[in-house]
Amino acid sequence: MQIRTLMLASASPRRAELLSQIGVEFIQQPVDLDESALTNEPPKAQVLRLAAEKANAAWLQAEETAQVVLASDTMVVLENQALGKPRNADHARSMLQSLSGRQHEVMTSVSVRDATRQKTLCVVTQVVFGPLTAAQIDDYWATGEPADKAGAYGIQGIGGQFVKSINGSYSAVVGLPLYETVQLLKEFEVMS
To answer: What is the pTM (predicted TM-score) of this model?
Structure first.
């Protein structure tokens, strides 16, 4: 039985699917804010800050529609450099070539807030790609899938074929670490 009304501050269909998967009812309300890194901001600090800022922005919009807000941010990080969403095919090609045959990290932060408190955490998962050929990368770009994905790939889609192994939370790589999210939602009385 759900106790409090939850707002998901995201347009992501993947995050919505993951929340639905754990049986939580929610309303979905994306927020729009500048996601640029601050000067000398490390990726982990950036992903934590963005999740918290999204939750705060959504809280201001929530009014009477929700008692709790959940926001999340996901970042693909290679050698301590954040790989955002690709600007175009060349940028995607460059990102995927840099990930080819190597390990990178996926950092996903979750922030939950209500009228009196906010809690934000970050889950880091190591992902190893197998080697990619130029043809594989071009074929993948042609599917359209990488265009709106951090690091230019989606593990839950066609891009999953490039992933040799992961160490950590699969759902965090998709966009929402389920175990940690459930713990937060219990703490904020959205789940019993």
So the answer is: 0.94
